[in-house]
Hints:
The complex is a heterodimer.
Chain A: E1 9-10, E2 26-30, E3 36-41, H1 45-64, H2 67-83, H3 85-96, H4 100-120, H5 124-128, E4 130-132, E5 138-146, E6 149-153, H6 161-172, E7 176-180, H7 187-197, E8 206-209, H8 213-222, E9 228-230, H9 239-247, E10 252-254, H10 267-271, E11 274-282
Parallel strand pairs in A: 1-3, 6-7, 6-9, 7-8, 9-10
Antiparallel strand pairs in A: 2-3, 4-5, 5-11
Helix pairs in contact in A: 1-8, 2-4, 3-4, 4-6, 8-9
Chain B: H1 11-17, H2 23-31, H3 38-48, H4 55-67, E1 69-72, H5 80-91, E2 105-109, H6 113-120, E3 134-138, H7 149-161, E4 166-170, H8 173-177, H9 181-194, E5 204-208, H10 217-229, E6 234-236, H11 248-265, E7 270-272, H12 280-293, E8 306-308, H13 311-324
Helix pairs in contact in B: 3-11, 4-12, 4-13, 5-6, 7-9, 10-11, 11-12
Amino acid sequence: MSRLAVPKTYKLYIGGKFPRSESGRVYEVLGASGEFLANAAKASRKDARDAVVAARAAVSGWSKATGYNRGQVLYRIAELLEGRRAQFIEEITLAEGVSSSEAEAQVDEAIDRWIWYAGWADKYVQVAGNANAVSGPYFNISVPEPTGVVAIVAPQTSSLVGFVSAVAPALVAGNTVVVIASEALPLSAISLAEVLATSDVPGGVVNVLTGSPAEMAPWLASHADVNALDLVGAGELDWVQLQIDAAETLKRVFPPESGPDAATPSLARIVGFTETKTVWHTKSLI
Amino acid sequence: MTIDKVVSPASRATEVLGGELTESSLKRYLNGISGVDAVGLEARAADLGSRSIKTTSKAWALDRIISLIDLTTLEGADTPGKVRSLVAKGLTPDAADPTCPRVAAICVYGDMVPAAVEALGASHGLDEVSGGINVAAVATAFPSGRASLAVKLADTADAVAAGADEIDMVIDRGAFLSGRYGQVFDEIVAVKEACRRADGSYAHLKVILETGELNTYDNVRRASWLSILAGGDFIKTSTGKVAPAATLPVTLLMLEVVRDWNRLTGEKIGVKPAGGIRTSKDAIKYLVAVAETAGEEWLQPHLFRFGASSLLNDVLLQRQKLATGHYSGADYVTID
């Protein structure tokens, strides 16, 4: 007797929990050859709103953690990803229709990028900060600080590497993120969220939405409690309008990128979502 | 509308109970009140909480919520400066929107009443001036109520003399739970008398049941009747210092008592849920419960209040969302 298949329903990841969409909607995720893979939650603007609330609540804890501690937490995620290689390879093979060695290479790349960014957590301040020379007996020090809540439209043509490349750098500086996963390839993003939920990342630091970026992105772009907007995967959307919406509340914005070099690891992706704080301090008190 | 019928203390009880008012007659009356169907009550509350309130109704509800708020600060660290900033917030909740209504009252500890009265200046008094705000003071050894009657009365009289329009008193839960209803009754009567001003008028008396300490719905129902019989103008759920504070089922139960009292005597008693109501969504559920239980007439500051502090900011965020069409954030309201 053949066994009935038990397909998984992939849910959202908001505030450390895995809720369904408040709208109750799901959509079918299809494999490269058009076969049914799984149902994923189709998030609404209200799920995006809830995700921002969760992300905002997590800002104080995550941004106040020491860079060293954040580095440890992020490195631990890479360790857990390593233990789940087989699952990610299978998901990517089915979703993208690539060979398993190609999928393996993608997973390797994602883990390596994650580790590369984890290493920056206690180092980027030294590189991006500065002791400024001033004409007086003062220390004048500039340090980058996280900007707050970052909304991300993840690259749409990549299962895992694109997602990791957009999320990791925002986390390094101490930001919390609300990320809209690839609409067609959302499964690895939610599997990664399951890794995050069992790691040391506090709930709310990463919030993953699946569904239509065109539906949710405008609400995040105009949301007054979102501090920055990464449009790396928004090339197919009306991203100029999204930038205009974001300008209303003075958000920092990354433009869309496409092609194999999209969201290549760089220090700029870390520093881009920070604000510089400059302090003066007397050199001596007489 | 002004509720100006002066209820002389204990007169309600003598009318309703008939005969001589004694500890045993009071006990017999309260113990004769039928028990509460807890499952039915909670199911009804959950049902009322599931209504969908959208667009124009929501805009109306948000404005109404603001005008029903007793903006509260009850911290040991309160200062006159904190009270002044609270008053400023109560008078101008949203500085970017002059159409935003004002709150109903500022609720403070007794020693902060002069600071609140001074900060309000010409805007003092919900009934006296258009756009006015009342000053409410918690009294009677709030929040525990553990002090002698003389101290409680002095506490009350002091706040009234300083200009408080409303007194939030706590009942003696220890006495109530050990069945000494007469003692609780007499205390409320005495405090009501202490609310009397020099000109013969009374400060409005809100009686805090502290439902989180009463343990059962039956006790809440009895305490509500007891408070009303003793002359309370409002019954209030909680001090906000004990968890659980206000819940929808408890508030619904108290609204039912108020409705029954209205049917029995024609009098209108107010209800004030306090503590734990932080979101507009929750507050709207309370409005629905009020309208469906006591009646829409109760949706006015003389008959219904929210005791809250953080609720106001959430309502303002929702108002801004309705006005601008995009979500607002905590950076766009004041930090309290």
